[in-house]
Amino acid sequence: MPILTIILGIGAGLTALGIFGTAIYCCFFQNAPEEDDRGVYRCLDGDPNFAPGVQQIADWANSPGGLTINNQVLGVLNHGNVLAFSNRFHTTLAQNNLWTWSPVDRGNYYDLLDGVLDRGECNLPAHALRGLLRFAMPYGFNQAENNFAVNEYTGTYHQGFIATHTNQVMGLSANTWRPNGTAAGFYNWENHKTLVYNNQYYDPSYGTSQGGLGYYANEADMAVAQIRGSVNFNQDQFVGIYVLGVLKTDDAAPLAHKGFYVACARSTIDGHLAVDADEYNGNQAGFTVAYIGPYSPGVNGTANNNFNFDNTVDYLNGVVLQ
User: Fold this and answer.
1) 242-256 average pLDDT score
2) C-alpha 122 chain-centroid distance
3) How many C-beta atoms lie closer than 10 Å to residue 178's C-beta?
4) Residue 261 pairs with which residues in a beta bridge?
5) What is the pLDDT of residue 322?
6) E strand or H helix at 95, and its extent?
């Protein structure tokens, strides 16, 4: 056989083999889901281009999601079982120091479940709990997604509310002080997120930490007092203290909580209150909001529409937050 014929035959064979190999690669590898450093729950969230790998699945067992599931069985979908699992999720996060409650930090709920994110607002545990209930086994309980929703409560007047907040809850301290400077076990919230199932509100952020059962039959049960709105104030009255605003409760608030709350800028380093706008505006990231109150709602026991100043009184004179 001529050498040229042999060469051409070999070339044709190699070409055919190359085409076949390319087809095999495209069929079994190129279109296969890729693996990267994304965790199991981020993959399960719905990205079709990625699937959990061997190492990701192995890491799942020690993730916040894996530790919460941990061979648990939900059983019948009902109030008692959802409540028990919500409280279990809170306990898993709190007792293992897996989560810091930080209202100013954002992120994605699946990163919480994967252990990639360890701090954030209450929105994330609520969405994470919903994910654990709906994701397929063994990573969740495979319940229908439309059984659950995440709810935002902003108070009766959509101006915020005051909630019981004793001690630290997953690293978050109360933000309210009495007019004499002593710490009060309350938090002034603009909003709070919970998981809703069958018209019940489950709270994986607070859990049973405040003495409750871990859920609310009504949204308003989150609050000990409602914020009616903000009122006009005179910055000049607050000598040596920069004030961000003045809030008032509604007249239905219990007397112990009824009145005006002065919002100040408190240093995250040493706790001092910003003395003026220049200090605050020059380092807003170094301050958090502290609410001081209630100041008197008036002799008739109602919260006035305006903060009535007495020129001889400095409402924050000498206040040192303890």
Assistant:
1) 91
2) 2
3) 16
4) 247
5) 82
6) helix 79-95
CA distance 171 to 167: 9
DSSP letter at 165? -
Instruction: Give the position of tokens 């952020």.
Output: 205
C-alpha to C-alpha distance for 79 and 19, rounded to whole angstroms: 59
Residue 118 confidence class, pLDDT cut points 50, 70, 90: very high
Taking residue 67's Cβ as centre, other Cβ atoms within 10 Å add up to 18
Tens of pLDDT, residue by residue over 17-32, are: 343 333 323 322 333 3
Sequence length of the chain is 322
Please report, to the nearest 10 degrees, the dihedral formed by the alpha carbons of residues 164, 166, 172, 178 taken in order.
80
3-state SS class at 100: strand
Tell me the longest C-alpha to C-alpha distance in the chain.
Answer: 117
DSSP characters over 168-181:
-BTTBPP-EE-TTS
Beta strands in the chain (DSSP E): 100-101, 119-120, 148-153, 161-164, 176-177, 183-184, 186-189, 192-197, 200-202, 215-216, 225-230, 243-249, 260-267, 287-295
- Mark residue 118 as left, alpha or beta (left: phi above 0; alpha: psi -120 to 50; beta: remaining): alpha
Residues 110, 42 contacting (CB under 8 angstroms): yes
Burial of 303 (0-12, 13-18, 19+ CB in 10 A): buried
pLDDT band, very low/low/confident/very high, at 249 (cuts 50, 70, 90): very high
* Element at 91 (helix H, strand E): helix 79-95
State how far the alpha carbon of 179 is from the alpha carbons of 192, 228, 249, in Å: 25, 20, 16
**CA–CA dist 248, 242 (Å, integer):** 18
